[in-house]
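User: Hi! I'm a student and our assignment asks us to look at how structure tokens line up with a sequence. Could you show me two examples?

Assistant: Happy to help. In each example below, the sequence comes first and the structure tokens follow. Example one:
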Amino acid sequence: MKLDRRFTPISLLMLSINGMIGSAWLFAPLYAAKIAGSAAIIAWLIGGFATALIALTFAELSVLLPVAGGTAQIPQLSHGTLTSFTLSWVAWLSALTMAPIEVQAVLQYASTYFPTLTYLAEGVPLLTHIGLCWATVLMLSLCIINIASFKGLVRFNFVLFIFKVVVIILTIVMLINVNFHPENFLGLAESTFSSNGWKSILAAVASGGIAFAFTGFKHGVELAGEAKKFAIAIPVAIVGSVLCCMVLYIGLQVAFIGALQPSSIQHGWQHLAFVGDVGPFAGIAAGLGLVWLLKLLYVDAAISPLGAGLIYVTSTARILFAMSQIGYVPEALSRLNKQSFPVWAIMTNFAVGMFLFLPLPGWQAMVSFLVSAMVISYAIGPIALLCLRLQLPNEKRHFRLPFANVLCLLAFYFCNLLSYWTGWQTVYKLAIALGIGFIFFIAAYIRGKLKANALGFKAAGWIIPYLLGLTLISYLGAFGGKNVITFGWDFIVIAIFSLIILYLAVLNRSKNIEKEFVAVLNL
């Protein structure tokens, strides 16, 4: 039974934008400013450009292979089962945590009025028993909307999209018009002329919530199998969502920095603090006496994360659906209900996701982990594009990326930089998560669910050196590591590393995949 093609180009674009505008816009301008000061604006430009470049590689791939759960299916074709499992496991694990994080963000904002929802543990707000009960209700509601009705999903998504975008635009306009301090931007030029300034800018991209803010573009990849007019819908959704959101995010960062009282940053941006900064924009609105905007922001503090959480419930289920079809997880998870929705995958994600409400690090630390995991799953984009052009040279491509060799190398380089910038404290945790994933891979192999002749052990010629190399560079690097590879030299080391791994990945691609390509299209 196949998934129906139900999403128009506009609805897929709105789904991607809606998935991108979650808790990031509520928190990232504060965290990015604390790390990079007014130069956070440059960080948004870098993050948006890097993500758009990566997104372009997925645009060609998803038009060529418009199937559900492309994160699992694309590497399965290009390099076989081992590579596919590794990357889809990382993508599923990171995407799985998004809905719980967005729900937790809602409850954290709500705790301003309902303090019984959270308690502080070493300065980090965690959910109480009452908070966990409400988290269960919200998570179940997102699942029910996904399962019950496609029309309900699209209508709910449309309403959320309009509301969230309007609130963001109103926030930008009001803060700039009511209280704007140009002197807050004086350090912008100075930051671009120092190594410490650039180090802060790059750290803000990875750890300040900026790269996290753009992760929603992958919804277009995971939902490609349900897109109408996919040759138009997929590129528009994947690349268009990044560009639209970049404009909104830069506007928010400019408005946030300009609205701050100069006294709040007199001791340095890293000590930025003001009344109500647990909800940055709401705190500023309260300080300016914008009561109507304050109320609107508190409503949006619930709406934006829930809207993003709704879309992540939708797309994360498609990753698990594809992993089930390949054989990594039980076959039951690919079963569809009468409306052609992967209901068992959705409910499994709900059950596993609820465990993530156990005590976790703060929002910023979790974001760093997700970014590091997500960009590793992004790495297959530029790699698979080059491989599939060699593997399927005669297959018609309705969207073709120009200058692919150069742009794919740059996209792969950015993936590795983003992972490195999250820092050693994040990368080593990801390495542990990957180790757990391989236990599931071995279990699937023992159960006989994987074809022995398609395991793709030859792909270990790049995937294992790639993961070990990233871990080693992070350990020796300047972002939380031993600083053996100092700032500046790390760019050169990662560039050489990226070039070698990309060459090995293309060299070790699967051969004679025409039959597998047709089979995947017919799933």
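Example two works the same way, sequence first and then tokens:
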Amino acid sequence: MSGAEDVSADQYDVVIVGSGAGGGMAAYQLTKAGLKCVLLEAGDWYDTAKDSKWLEWGYDAAHRGASREPMGGGGFDAVVGGWTVEGEPYSCAAGTEFKWFRSRMLGGRTNTWGRIALRNGPYDFKPHSRDGKGFDWPISYEDLAPYYDRTEELIGVFGSVEEMENLPDGKYQPPPAPRCYERLVQKACGTLKIPCIPSRLAILTQPKGERPACHYVAQCGRGCRMGSNFSSPAVLLYPALQTGNLEIRCNAMAREVKTGPDGLATGVAYVDKKTGETVEVRGRTVVLAASACETARLLLNSRSERNPKGLANSSGMVGKYLMDTVMSDVTGWVPAMMDLPAHNEDGVGGMHLYMPWWKYKEQARGELPFSRGYHIEFDGGRRGMPGPGLLSGAEGLLGGGYGAQLKEKSRRLYGSFVSFHGRGEMIPNEQSYCEIDEKAVDRWGIPVLKFHFAWSEEEVQMARHMQTTFQEIVKAAGGTVIESYGAEERWGIAAGGQGIHEVGGARMGSDAKTSVLNEHCQAWDCRNLFVADGAPFVSLADKNPTLTILALAWRTSEYVASQMKTGRA
């Protein structure tokens, strides 16, 4: 790698790369501890209070809010980045499909995520001990539980106490009442003995400090001007700035972690995207929270004579055991929801109910062809006009038509569709990893990633079970399946990365020979280097990863602060 052209005059206590869930939490905790921090963000500034478009009408957006490339979002969504980022390519090995979503804005994906805040359970930290597959984490649920408590209380999460197997309850605000279609689905699930309980979302239903309760604009993906939902800028970064201990540098594309003759990190070299110049910012400690794959890329690109395979990679594990959520979908048409009088189905920007995994006993008896679980998310009702695909799917039931006939058909069908989305656990495998593509660089001359990815038969069978279950729910609700992927060879399983839950690539462990980080997310090979995003994950449970990223980053930051005070980091 080329040397830095300009060295920042100041030296900080901590250099943080990334401003999303992990980077935001690190900045919040470390500045509160009195440490001087600089945070590098590859994207531009984003102010949730000024830049969000939460009260704009969708039809006022360009192309009426249709999905747009390369951004990947639609209308007024707070998406800068997406599946395709101009000047930032990546590649996939032959026969591999992996979709890499990247955010280029302050706060990263926390501006648009679904805010589903689920704790990993005891089984999720020790999966290998339970079924002999994958790997165990070097920490237990009990180690992280206090940080889950504190995180939920800080960001605000609604939910309910259920005392279910491997679904730890948390510190919750009251959940919102279910909508009409959600009650109908809940009733159908009851006949099938599938639990359907209040969701657990990082959205306030009661005021918290200066943050008001959500008042049901239901536009969370656009960014919340009031800070009623959780995002890194609103809840973590702005308070961190108020300490006077944080500097944020936007449009700073990290190139490599710099090290000294003793092998310790000395700072980070980045490209100033506005000028094209390379700058080195120095720090006593470095915390990487650039997202799992970006962190792996940064470590692999931090090559030196001392670290020819990349920094913190003596084990050869950087980039390995990449995971994403197993996904498959079904949409049903439910006649009971047709021709209803107009009524208000507003609510939070997401589901009010969901279905957690419920078949642990069947798995223990060996009755299922896969080893891990999935939960079910669903949406529908009167929160959007039916699209052409849904109308054509129901055409054989109500007949076709054009003009006035089509409008009348749309009115009758409005609110009568429900879509089910499975979110399942992938078991890590050796065929899923990322590496440096030696033949390609981005617009700043930084080598890019090449992905290898493969689902195992475990995940394929899980997707098949999802399809069967969703169709059973639709039928139990008196509906008809109109969109299903069950006829496909791999049961509609989405491409790797499409879940936008990619984790792994710098996993934690208790052995330096088989892991990148220790139980504190501290690099075995470089004691003043830490990772605070999804890269340390050893497994990816069926629970969405953001809450665990936040709690783990809090735990890591607490350790960083203690080590720096004693001079050991």
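Here is something you could point out in your write-up. Residues 398 and 409 are 7 Å apart (CA to CA).
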